[in-house]
Design brief:
It is built from eleven helices and 13 strands. It starts with 5 loop residues before the first strand and ends with a helix.
Length: about 300
């Protein structure tokens, strides 16, 4: 039976006494999935496990039905670009991409055609015959991406692929990711900035201390965290009166006047009851200018999830 998922089943990986990842269970469908976490959280370990560069100490991994213990099969469907600047500086960009295709076993004429197309895709044609030693950081990032996509893999695994890219190239690279995803493929990328990847990701996996703390679209992630109180800014001209009235309703954990004068900061575990309470305040004559869910700020949510919140 065909399988288009990337699967982690109770996967743990230790480096001696140092934790890489611990008891990870994941089912990653095609599309753009971003692994987000601070340095040392386990993102690169997960990506190396997908690519078969390391193997789990316990548990199993499969990539579209292929085990990382079958490296030749896996490399036919997977392209990997690490964050490490390891491209040989003495090679030209074209030769670097071509060498990867030759290692994949493509006949030379086919490899030349594919290398040319991949370099054109990442907008490096004019620099293709220059040595990588003369490339900027962003150009080196793009030539590694070109090598990863040159054999047209079904799975792209990209470690911090947007680092060092100027805004125009960044937009073009994101468009490339979206095109891949639209064709039913996997694009797995890592970042330490949730706000950056949430804009274009189909799924976000938040990682801290080697463990998955939440996964899904950012809104569904928010709904999964039932123990996390919701935070709102109630914009109104009489925040003290609003606080007194709100505390007559159940579920309000905290209400304090915003130091910046924007209104009332409210924390509640009962979102629907709070929304009804606000409606009643408006009906009773309290002038309300707006209600803003502060948890829509994805960076604030991530800080909470990894232990920085209340």
């Amino acid at each position: 039976m065909s399988d288009d998922l990337i699967r982690f089943d109770r996967v743990s990986k230790f480096y001696g006494d140092v934790l890489g990842v611990n008891k990870v269970d994941l089912r990653i469908p095609p599309g753009i999935t971003s692994l987000v976490g601070p340095n040392g959280s386990g993102k690169t370990t997960l990506m190396n496990l997908m690519a078969g560069l390391i193997h789990p100490g316990s548990g199993t991994v499969s990539v579209r039905g292929i085990s990382p213990f079958a490296p030749e099969q896996l490399m036919r469907i997977l392209g990997y670009a690490t964050q490490y600047d390891a491209a040989p500086r003495g090679l030209t960009g074209f030769d670097f991409v071509l060498s990867g295709l030759l290692l994949h076993g493509f006949p030379r004429p086919d490899a030349v055609r594919r290398a040319t197309h991949a370099i054109e895709t990442v907008a490096l044609t004019s620099a293709a015959r220059r040595k990588i030693a003369a490339y900027s950081k962003g150009m080196r990032q793009r030539i590694r991406l070109a090598q990863a996509i040159a054999h047209d893999p079904a799975v792209l695994v990209l470690d911090e692929p947007l680092n060092g890219l100027d805004p125009v190239v960044r937009a073009e690279t994101i468009a490339l990711f979206r095109d891949y995803a639209a064709r039913g493929r996997h694009v797995i990328l890592s970042s330490h900035v949730l706000q950056e990847v949430d804009v274009f990701s189909d799924q976000v996996i938040l990682i801290a201390n080697g463990m998955v703390v939440a996964e899904g679209a950012i809104r569904s992630v928010r709904e999964e965290i039932h123990e996390h109180p919701s935070q709102y800014l109630l914009r109104c001209a009489e925040p003290a009166r609003a606080a007194a009235l709100l505390f007559t309703h159940a579920g309000i954990l905290e209400a304090r006047i915003d130091p910046g004068g924007a209104g009332l900061l409210v924390i509640t575990r009962q979102r629907e009851a709070f929304a009804l309470a606000v409606q009643r305040l408006a009906v009773d004559g309290l002038a309300i200018d707006g209600l803003e869910p502060l948890d829509e700020n994805v960076d604030a949510l991530y800080e909470y999830l990894i232990g920085g919140g209340k």
